[in-house]
């Protein structure tokens, strides 16, 4: 179960580290500090900061990342909400007729 906070996740920095899902973000911070040479070779996924991949593989990971769909779906939802909100809150103000006659 992906939502289980007790499941074990393998550290992307040190392969023999297995961390509980609920502690994983904290472990990544500490492990990056403890292993700066390994951390320099890894890139962070723009869709999920828990995804650390070799820099050369980042573009391939971005194309296949499961979290990409969640971000794209959120952007589409927010965009459509914003458009609907603009329609609902649109101003009905109209400029009054002008008394000026530029021809005379």
From TrEMBL:
PROSITE patterns: ZF_CHHC_U11_48K. One of its GO terms (molecular function) is zinc ion binding. Residues 81-95 have a biased composition (Polar residues). Residues 8-35, 42-69 form the CHHC U11-48K-type domain. Pfam families: zf-U11-48K. It comes from Molothrus ater. It comes from the Eukaryota. Keywords: Metal-binding, Zinc, Zinc-finger. InterPro entries: TRM13/UPF0224_CHHC_Znf_dom, UPF0224_FAM112_RNA_Proc, Znf_C2H2_sf. The keyword Transport does not apply. Residues 81-104 are annotated as: Disordered. The keyword Metal-binding applies. SUPFAM superfamilies: beta-beta-alpha zinc fingers. This is GTSF1 factor.
């Amino acid at each position: 179960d992906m939502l289980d906070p007790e499941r074990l996740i393998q550290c992307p920095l040190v392969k023999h580290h297995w961390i509980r899902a609920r502690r994983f973000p904290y472990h990544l911070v500490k492990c990056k500090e403890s292993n700066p040479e390994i951390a320099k070779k890894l890139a962070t996924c723009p869709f999920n900061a828990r995804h650390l991949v070799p820099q050369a593989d980042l573009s391939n990971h971005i194309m296949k990342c499961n979290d990409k769909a969640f971000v794209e779906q959120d952007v589409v939802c927010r965009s459509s909400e914003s458009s609907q909100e603009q329609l609902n809150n649109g101003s009905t103000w109209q400029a009054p007729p002008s008394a000026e006659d530029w021809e005379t």
